[in-house]
Amino acid sequence: MTIERTHGKPDGALRVGQFTGWHGDRTDGMAELLESGVEILTGDYLAELTMLVLAKNEHRGGKGYVSAFVDVLALHLDEIAEGGIKVVTNAGGLDAPGLAAAIRELCAERGVSLSVAAVIGDDVRDVLNERDDLELVNIDTGVALDLSEHRVLTANAYLGAWPIVEALHRGADIVVCPRTTDASLVVGAAAWKFGWTPTDYDQLAGAVVAGHIIECGAQATGGNFSFFAEHGDLGLPGMPLADISQDGSAIIGKSVDSGGLVTTDTVLAQLFYEVNGHAYQNPDVVTDLTSVHVESAGADRVRVSGTVGFAPTSTAKLSLTFEGGYRNTMTIGLTGANLKNKIDWIRRQVEAEIGKPESFDECRWATIGPANVDGTFEEATAWLVLTVRDKERSRVDRAHFSSRIVSIATSSVPGFYMTTPPQSERLFGVQWPSLIEKNLVHASVLVDDGSHIPVAWPAWDDAAAEPYPIAENDRPDVTGSDSDLGATAPAMLGAFVGTRSGDKAGSANLGAWARDDATFRWLDTFLTVDRLRLLMPELADLRVERFVFSNLRGMNFMIYQYLGDGVSACTRIDPQGKGLGEYLASRLVDVPVALYSAEDGNQPIE
Known about the structure:
Residues 499-586 form the AtuA-like ferredoxin-fold domain. The chain is of the alpha+beta class. It is 24% helix and 26% strand. Helix 1 (29-34) links the parallel strand 1 and strand 2 (40-43). The protein is globular. The relative contact order is 0.12.
């Protein structure tokens, strides 16, 4: 390694680079990181939806693993072997042994000698079949699932870091994991490197935070970033890396000579992504997110330290998907004036053809736009989107749904057109997040010679793992404490506050953070649950909890059931809640004039 490639890396630190953040992420991340002096490459492919996609693929006779990983690996196999670089990925999906076999075959074809291990044990469908007494309670709704009423498609417990550690200790160069918590890929690498024990909770928790920050790839380096416009052309943000030290602290950076940036804001944005409360549950440690300290460590370098961990609980998260029925959608283009009258007429006509909304399990009409009726054709266009779902396939198939809507095109409003031909229905899965006792989940490592090495869960302590109440007692009053903040002027919230949102099964999380202490004091008082409901009327009837993180100058809102039964089943136009943060940031609010600063461009709206 050259000095340039390892620039900024603390002595003794482990450099881990995340080459992909999801199934579908760009494929050049591995090349970037190999030029950046990484010792371990980690790759996360398994969003909640991906498991269902792989299950459907298997059902059609395809692969149950992410075959694209083999293609990426093939491009860099020689360099990885020559450099002694380890690779840890969850691309194994539903068939980690199958992917391991494919990698061994690739190595044999290329004459490269690498040891490949597969982690197994996450699939608990057999356990569910044998134990009809299991009460699988949805952790968001409290409702218990009756398995006898549903066809289970996937049921995977989230494994932790110690099977990865075992595989690396046994000489594996490439570790193929199935459903493992995203951060565990990094935790396992660090625990192996530094010889941590299962009770080194603070170190493990520090690695969880580092892993969480880099797990979604470029979302830590300028992608999906509220304040992007302040930094000029960010180009294509580089892939993130973490220099992890023996004590669990880490410095977050990015691949060399790449676009994007790494600042405390880009790191905070990712810290607030897809988390819930103060205690961040992982299989091997409970991480106290109120203990995390974030500070700049130079250009494109951010230090994350001080993290405290607690013993894990006796349960693992279980991601279960069962067959929910079928869905279909059609989008109608509407241009020009009389929009309300056009929509009303179309809805009456469509309902006469396919049935009333209440005749479906779910029916959602959504109108998007127009942006400007006096603007260009595109700006003056609105989209009318109709999405339906039902257990009865024939209710939403092409013949009875999409073709019938198309059939009224010349008998309806002026300018009626469709964005697609009539579509066929598709199967959707219902996501059911729950917990399963760890003593029912048995992980092991499958090595090159076919041997299975069992890996026990670390000791747990349910009492020690609950240092915080489930939710903060939120202030009920939306106007109460503003009077001492002086005069106010209207501005978009996003001029002062960063936001990021995402999905957690059927719920959404929405994080918001301030960039200075004064703004955070105002935000803490201002942005209560009740205020959030006023700013975002869609949340009026939903359960919302707020968790404040004064150490991060921010807060996280859990919005339960906003996404219904999860991304595959959700009928919203944004089924993963990705846009909620920017929606909140665009709300016009009264901001204390004392917070305005000509230096950063924050000015009242005239």
